[in-house]
Structures are given as structure tokens and as C-alpha cells.
């Protein structure tokens, strides 16, 4: 069956390289009918994406976001859908997260210099433009200066979770991220649950289950199952976990147009349309409870 849903996409509002309009046009060309733009710590790309989607009558956009959270020694990402993006308290929190990204990025530029890689923080800011600044922008500056071939190479030894130039920033705990989202009517979805917890080391199943149980108690509604980087066995296992915990199976390509030729394109992977209906139902219930 062709994939018609992609709920995990990034734009130039954060670390994606396509503008919201370009991304929507690409998604349309891939036959996608329901997409979500889920930028890191910002909703700034949604208005343009919505305008672009309006040119394709068969397409719809779900407002999304991706938040980064701390866990001991690792990182969990939390997606939110259908939240009230006009809530001032919610936007204030996002502004705080984005400010933390600036100090962290500058710290990484300093650390990189200690390893003989000299890039200017001002150049990173230029590359990011109006975006929520992330490690990929630092990676882009490193690639531009000739230190690496692509973003992934820069992450491998230096910018990744356990990389030599990695700098921490303060983030929410995963349950607090679920609460932040649900408080503004957002449906919280555990992103790419299988990695990013400790570097790229896969977590033991038990630890993932414990996280799911903790998040479920905090109000989690879904988790990514159909993720572009997962093999069939991982998808099957995650689908079983989602079923066991009554979580909506979500997912998508996590497309960034990163410049890496191996990056999976939008439309290669995604959840069934039924998952979108379940997300909408959850959003309706959250809205009614506000
Ligand atoms: P940040 O939001 O600044 O913590 O950066 C995290 C983002 O970096 C992720 O959402 C991905 O877009 C990107 N990223 C993480 N690991 C890698 C990698 N190994 N190669 C390329 N990009 C990566
Ligand atoms: Zn990203
Ligand atoms: Fe992520
Ligand atoms: Fe992402």
C-alpha cells in the first residue's frame, strides 16, 4: 500500500533545509495526503506550510512540534500534534528552549576550536537564519569549512550525544514534555523510541518499556512505529508495544533534506490513515477537557 501519511518533517524553521513551501511541494509530489511539520522547539514554519498545503486540495497539514527531553545519559524526543500554538505560555516555553540552543551552540563552537576545527559562531547564526538553532547548523558550518563531507560525518565523532564537542543544554524531562503538550491540547507522541537514548546505541527492550510506562502514566497518546530508519523487525516489535499500551502507532520520514544522499525521502514510510483518525479523536477529547 502506498504511504499517504508522514507525521515527522522538518523545515528551515529549524534544522531542515527546505522551506515549508518547498517541503509541502515535495510531499505532494510523493503522493502524501496528510503531513505534519514538526520542527524542533518552534511552530514558526506552520503558517507558511498551511498556505502551501492550500494549493493542494487533497492534502492537509497537522500542526506539529518536536521537543527534546533529558533522560540520564541520553535524550528522548517528544512530538506534539494539534496543540494550541497561539497559547502564550506555550510559546514562552518554546522561546526559552530556543534561547538554550544558542548558548549550547556557541559552547560547541568553542569546543570544536580545541580540536583544531575553527568555525565562527556568527557564521552558524547566518546559516540558521531565523531558525531554531541546532547541532545540524553547526554541522553545516563545519561542512562548509571543509572539515566534513556531510552532517552525519560531523555528528559521528564530534556533535553526537557522546561526541567530543557535545555540549548539554537544559531540557524538560519526558513526562514534563507530555504535560506541556497536553496542557495546550496537544497529542503527545514518543518520537523514534528506539534510538537517541544513549548516543546511537540501541536501548535494551526493557528500558524502552519502562519509559513507555512512565510516559503513558503522564498522558502519552502515541509513539512512532513507522520510522524511516527502522528495519521491519523493529517496526513489528514497536507495533506490538504500541498495541500492548494502547498507543497510537505514528511515524514518518523525519526528513531534513540534510544533503546526505542516503536520507530516506518523505513518503517512504508512514503510519496508516487510521492513526490520523485516532490522533484527531484524542485531540478532540483533549480540547473538550480544557
Ligand atoms: P539538536 O536539536 O541541536 O539537539 O540536534 C538534533 C538533531 O540533529 C536531530 O533532530 C537530527 O536532525 C540531527 N542529527 C542527530 N544525529 C544526527 C546524525 N548522526 N547525523 C545527522 N544529523 C543528526
Ligand atoms: Zn532535526
Ligand atoms: Fe528527533
Ligand atoms: Fe525530527
Topology overview:
Elements: E1 5-9, H1 20-29, E2 34-37, H2 46-53, E3 60-71, E4 74-81, H3 88-114, H4 121-128, H5 135-144, H6 151-159, H7 174-183, E5 187-190, H8 205-218, E6 222-227, H9 232-244, E7 248-252, H10 273-289
Parallel strand pairs: 1-2, 2-3, 5-6, 6-7
Antiparallel strand pairs: 3-4, 4-5
Helix pairs in contact: 1-2, 4-5, 5-6, 7-8
Rg, alpha carbons: 18 Å
Order of strands in the sheet with most strands: 1-2-3-4-5-6-7
The biggest sheet, with number of strands, parallel, antiparallel or mixed sense and barrel status, is: 7 strands, mixed
Structural class: alpha/beta
> How far is it from the N-terminal to the C-terminal residue, by CA?
37 Å
Query: Order of SSEs, N→C?
Result: EHEHEEHHHHHEHEHEH
Low-confidence stretches: none
How many individual domains? 2
Number of helices: 10
CATH superfamily (homologous) name of the largest domain: Metal-dependent hydrolases
CATH third-level topology of the largest domain: TIM Barrel
Q: Roughly what fraction of the amino acids lie in strands?
A: 15-25%
Task: Kindly provide the name of the CATH class of the largest domain.
Answer: Alpha Beta
Helical residues, percent = 40-55%
Instruction: Write the CATH architecture name of the largest domain.
Output: Alpha-Beta Barrel
Ligands bound to this protein structure:
adenosine monophosphate, zinc ion, fe (iii) ion
Mean pLDDT: 94
Principal-axes shape call: globular
